Amino acid sequence: MLRNLNCLTIDDNNNDQTKDSINYEVQDAETFRFADHVRPLVAANCSEYAVAHSNVHQQPVRQLCEISFLPHILQTMSRLKLTQILRLQSYAWPHLSKQAGHGAVLVSAPRSGRTLSYVPPLCQQVCIMLTKHRSVSKLGFEGPMAIVLAADLGRVQRIGSLCNGMLRKAKNEEWLTLALMVPSAFTPEFFYRLLNGVGCLVATPAQLLWLCSNFDVKLPNLSFLAYDDVDLMVPEQLQQAHHKLKSLAQQRPQLVITTQSYNVKLLAMLRDFNDKMLLLFGDMLEAAAYGGVRLRISLLKHESKLQNVLQLLEQRPPLEKRTAIYCHKDKDIRELADVLELHGYCCLPYYQSADWEVREHVRRWMDDSCGELLLCTDNCPELDMRHVQTLVHYSLSDNWSKFKLRHLALSDNLHNQLEQPTPKQLDQQTVSLVLLDEHNNKQLPRLVDFLQQHQAVDERIVQLSQQLRTRLQSEKCNEPTLCDLLLSLGHCSDSHCEQRHHVLPCERELPAGLPYCGDVKLQLLKAYSPTHYSVRLLEHLPPAGKWRNLPARVTLELELQLLQSQKCVRHWPPRPKQICVYRNATGFERVRILCVAHIENVNLSRTDVAVEVQAMDVNTRRIKTTSGDLYICPEPLRAAPALAMDLRILGLVPYTGEREWHKEDANQCAKWLNAVAKPNFLQASIVVALSHTIFVRDLAAINYAPSMKMFVRTLNMSQQLAEKKLAKKCQLTVDRLMTLLNVAEIKLNDQQEEQQQEQQQSKTACLDYQKHQDVLNAGSALLQKQTRGRGRGNAIAQMALQLGRENRLRIEQEQQQQLDNKLKQLEQQPQLQTEPRTDSVQAFFDCIRKCDLLDAEERQLKQTTVTCSLPDPQFHMAMPKNVVRPQVSYYQTKITLELQLLLSDDNLQYEVVLFKKTNLGFWTLDTEPTQQCILKLPGPFVELKHFMRGRTVYLSVLKAYATSYPLEFSCYKFMKPHYDKINAYEEQQHVRAKHFELDLLEQGYVQKQKPQSKRDDELADEEPAEEDLNYCSSNGEKVERAYNRNEFELS
């Protein structure tokens, strides 16, 4: 039955009115809408029947008064309108209320009351333990008393709210947390609460594993465990969490497992903690699969169905096996009964108009079938069959729920796996045969999905079900949207997900002007998760082009708002995929209709039809509204492209291993992006695009730095999420998405990208040698041209040309010799042995060294020739387009060479290498373009230290000898001397020399030199001389004094 849930005001400080009172009342400190977090029950899923198997006696309850729950728990249930016991709860509540040793596995459809079957007993047990703790100690306790593992964050929030509403604490127990949820990031407050005592801890398996890996979790008071919706959890994570709890629990807690489909592994988990077990099924088809029923599917034509039935009756005679045949209508019963009677079978047709005499006949058939075949339909609920052995589905039901309920007729013949079976039960085989034809196969895809979970299915049937599923979905008027989990993770494990899991051809057709590759500038509209944003495209940069503005109708919002002054016409009837105008709280906006409820009479205009729409311009949010808020959109506005679209970052998944993100994470990402200094813009590189979504590698915030007069990358979203431990990269997610979108595989492995960059740099460096040769050739030609016709200069030019030819010939001979040696080595190696991989960095520096030698030879050649306008021989590399030089300043001390590199952004990852003591290499990682510099040091160095502060990288290279090297870095245009540090170093050297001289003077090793006396006329003629403070040693050697900094500059 459908149950409406009222609002309930609760908070975490649910207290007693008195110190030791048990009369709990709800406080009004904070309000909480319970209906927003607890999904209502669905009539079709709340079965009035249940199959219960246990190894202990079960006594179900009929009324709520038969259960002795605490008053505040009953009060909370009453305010939630939970006043009638469902069949699942009538078995689960009394069994779980017996506490220690009693566990259960609940198998039923979603929204059928599974969670409410264990939450009241859980809260009851926690309150009892709190009462016992109060009588022993007034202090807190460590760890939770109950743990609930839920499948996703939405269930965590709902179950936590429900537990919080049914738990209470005393006024003096402010240290106690009634219900605690695990946050998305490390927070001290969470661990403080966990240490002070928790009533119920609610988390996902991934969160529990993350918690155990980051904190020394102890569970001395754990008494209740619950795994909610285990079939939606990642199996590996569930197993790891189960083993972790098994090792941490100091006592055997009660375990409750809820699931949509049964698995024999669940029974093994239950046995790990409890010995008094209950298997409770609200889904009759799952109970049949558990009880050993053999399900068979036959696909054939309508004329061949009767022959298949006759073959089954020959294999399983009705005299030995009680047989029931389900038909769709009474007409089918008459036709089938006539044919079966012609073949000698006795039939008992049960029509919807059956009288009392027929019902008595059916009751006698239930006691003793006497070889009769019972023929009936789904519209006979008064039939109470439980012990049928052969069940034939001559026609399928109108819906899936009725088809599952048919298997209730087999319930008394199901094997109880908690008890030792008898020989008679082992010999007894129950069969359920499903006959499908061309007119009755709409339930085939769902039936195949169910069978694949429990047994092997013929591949031909699987392919046919996939074709049928595609055809049925294409015929639907309301085309469901793409699954959000599928777009985020590339995989959806929810077998009952109602969203679409394949891409339509229309979604691959991109609107005119929508970019599908290159880079784009964006405007952020809304953040839905750390990897999902609503954006507006501003500019586009093709792979080999320039930035261009994307076409956009800038007056669109103004035109929509002007509609308020006009008399708008309501949009009727609403159809999926239509564009209309939606009236929100502030004005009008364009929306696209996604889903419309069934409309019985289209000619009668209504304003209460439920409609789901998606915004097109303000953002891409989905809105559930009614047809009364939709108006006709003018044709010019209807043809305009959407201004907003979705953006998703590829390859990022939650750090804790969950399948979805916290809402707080999306808000945090929006704060990071909005906190970037203005002016700024967002930039992303497109990997693949659909008509409504673009998938990008990363999202970066870029703003203008006035001091540097350039745009710098202020925020890198992937890097920021990784540093805050909110997300991590996952190549499997990318592969799944690319498979879904039929795009070639894309790698996110940073090491492979680095190797490709190194190889590209190595190739570029090797080509630099040829460029230097071209420079020499051009210089020689120019020199020959300018010196032609001159006597002495012409001879020098000829000498220079000859030297250049000899140098080139020598270098070519050396390279040819090296190549021959390598070929000989390869010939000597076995054929199966592959060539060793050359070190790209070593090849890179070897090429640099060759280029430097050529540069030195060219300078020497320039010194021996006449002055002419040769090309600039300064050392430079042929840089790729994606590589730039950072600004470098340098100075030296007595023992180190200090370098400072100014990068375009902070928090960049980089690598720095000291190669063969004389070469220094630096480059950044995961940046576009790469910032790189290669230096040839003036002397040998032995050690390298580095660190980054802000946007500056500080490098300190330790010298092999404590001496001052001549710093000749003038050939590097991107390097500038640090004059302040150089002058300070020189002044420090002079001060040390002066102190050394004074020390020699005091020790008597040197004597102060006296100035020679001169005549007065000589003094008058000469200019005033400076004060001479030179000294002479005892052996007459002159020692000059040290100049200070000012004197040094004046000299």
TrEMBL record:
Q: SUPFAM superfamilies per the record?
A: P-loop containing nucleoside triphosphate hydrolases
Q: What is its EC number?
A: 3.6.4.13
| Comp. bias intervals (Acidic residues) | 1018-1029
Where are the coiled-coil regions? 734-761
Q: Which InterPro entries does the UniProt entry name for this protein?
A: P-loop_NTPase (IPR027417)
- What are the boundaries of the region Disordered? 1007-1036
Q: What class of enzyme is it?
A: hydrolase
Listed GO biological process terms: germ-line stem cell division
Name the catalysed reactions. ATP + H2O = ADP + phosphate + H(+)
Family annotation (Gene3D superfamilies): P-loop containing nucleotide triphosphate hydrolases
Molecular function (GO) terms for this protein are: ATP binding; hydrolase activity; RNA helicase activity
What are the record keywords, sorted? ATP-binding, Coiled coil, Helicase, Hydrolase, Nucleotide-binding, Repeat
Task: List, alphabetically, the PANTHER family matched.
Answer: ATP-DEPENDENT RNA HELICASE TDRD12-RELATED
Q: What is this protein called?
A: RNA helicase
Origin organism is Drosophila busckii (Fruit fly)
